[in-house]
Design a protein that fits this description.
Blueprint: H1 2-26, H2 34-37, H3 39-53, H4 56-78, H5 84-147
Helix pairs in contact: 1-5, 3-5, 4-5
């Protein structure tokens, strides 16, 4: 009978310590609030770039139409159905369009690298802070076991 009581007391003590562990570790544990600190800002940057990328097919189409128009004009010039001055002007305009499209693509890529690097750094810093908070809570729970 004494052994059973001792085991019962030990079991109750273990349950009490487990309850303390659960309260200490999970009470200040803001799991539902964590995504707003790390995941949501990252997703906002990704959504922004997806919106920008959705416009690129139209930009490429304008460039493609420009290149086709230049080819048509050169063909008309060879057939002597178009003046040299007109073809030269169209080629210059096409070159401007090509240069603009290429510069926009280069600018987009350079900005993308900087923005995504910053977003990933912020995400990882928030994850580190989050896991350090978990480690702190676990250490506090471990200390509760030392006190008993």
């Amino acid at each position: 009978m004494v052994i059973k009581i001792k085991i019962l007391r030990t079991t109750c003590s273990s349950i009490r310590l487990l309850a303390i562990l659960v309260v200490v570790v999970f009470s200040p544990f803001p799991v539902p609030l964590q995504p707003k600190n790390d995941l949501l800002p990252l997703l906002d940057v990704i959504r922004e770039y997806l919106g920008i990328l959705s416009t690129y097919p139209d930009i490429v189409e304008v460039h493609k139409d420009s290149a086709q128009k230049i080819q048509q004009c050169k063909k008309l010039k060879e057939e002597e159905k178009m003046a040299e001055a007109d073809v030269t002007e169209i080629v210059e305009r096409g070159s401007v369009i090509t240069a603009s499209v290429l510069s926009e693509i280069n600018h987009f890529h350079s900005e993308r690298v900087v923005d995504l690097k910053g977003a990933m750094q912020n995400f990882l810093q928030a994850q580190i802070a989050f896991h350090e908070q978990i480690i702190g809570n676990l250490r506090e729970a471990l200390g509760k076991y030392d006190q008993c």
